[in-house]
Amino acid sequence: MAALRWGTAVGYFAGEGTVADAIAWWDEIDGSEKWQRGIFCALCASYALVSVVALAQLIRIQLRVPEYGWTTQKLFHLMNVVVNGLRAVLFGLYHDVFLIKSKALEMALLDLPGLLFFSTYTLLVLFWAEIYYQARSLPIVKLRPAYLIINGVVYLIQICIWAYAQISPKPVATEVAKLFLSVISFFAALGFLIYGGRLFFMLRRFPIESKGRRKKLNEVGSVTAICCTCFLIRCFVVALSAFDNDADLDVMDHPILNFIYYMLVEIFPSALVLFILRKLPPKRVSDQYHPIN
């Protein structure tokens, strides 16, 4: 059982008390309404803080370059505002959301932020792919349509899963939805590894004296490592939850598991990436900083 194994590990690493005490502590918190409320409120506040930070950065960028429309950088921050704001609302209303009678509606509300998170951060993959292709004098006209098509297919498949969950009482729809999210998380991690890695090694070949080379190298390497790791963790945990009820997420009696999971795969990664990408665009905009057509 996932929760018991995790509690066992806590007992061992803490070095205090017995394993049975650690397991009892874990089970006590899982069954405590007070702890559930406190943990979900903490998640709500954390997501709200990240959303506010992303909004502040979006406003700063708009004030710096008001003459440009929706650039990739602005869209990335706007989507962060939406994703984290939606998560904050859902965790703030966790008691109502987790007990919705319509299974399809519950799945839609809980799965949608994960899909939007996928779209938000694969936007970085698109941006890096465009930079890499431009640097290699390769055509980039197909990259943006490919991004839109991939996301469109992902959302279409997910909508079909929600529809099946509405018309069928079988729990297989929930398992398929989890496995589908696990698969797209794996491919998101793979996208970061491929294009982040390509851009990283391309930058390493630039002359050492190149302006901003080291800073950009650290930026690309750090964001690639963070995003690849968080998507791989999501891939593993969501796949595990599809086959093990004790690893279920988004249920009231697993508050500690929810707290650790969402901190690792969304809150910390989002906060770190926003911090790393906090630099404002130059007032005199370069040719690479262009609005989305």
Automatic annotation (TrEMBL):
TM region(s), chain numbering: 35-55, 114-133, 145-167, 179-201, 222-243, 259-277
Keyword entries, A-Z: Membrane, Transmembrane, Transmembrane helix
The THH1/TOM1/TOM3 domain, residue ranges: 23-292
UniProt GO cellular component terms: vacuolar membrane
Entry's localization field: Vacuole membrane
Database matches in Pfam families: THH1_TOM1-3_dom (PF06454)
Membrane-topology annotation of the record: Multi-pass membrane protein
Recorded superkingdom: Eukaryota
Family note: Belongs to the plant tobamovirus multiplication TOM1 protein family.
PANTHER family: TOBAMOVIRUS MULTIPLICATION PROTEIN 1-LIKE, TOBAMOVIRUS MULTIPLICATION PROTEIN 1-LIKE ISOFORM X1
Identification of the protein by name: (wild Malaysian banana) hypothetical protein
Organism of origin: Musa acuminata subsp. malaccensis (Wild banana)
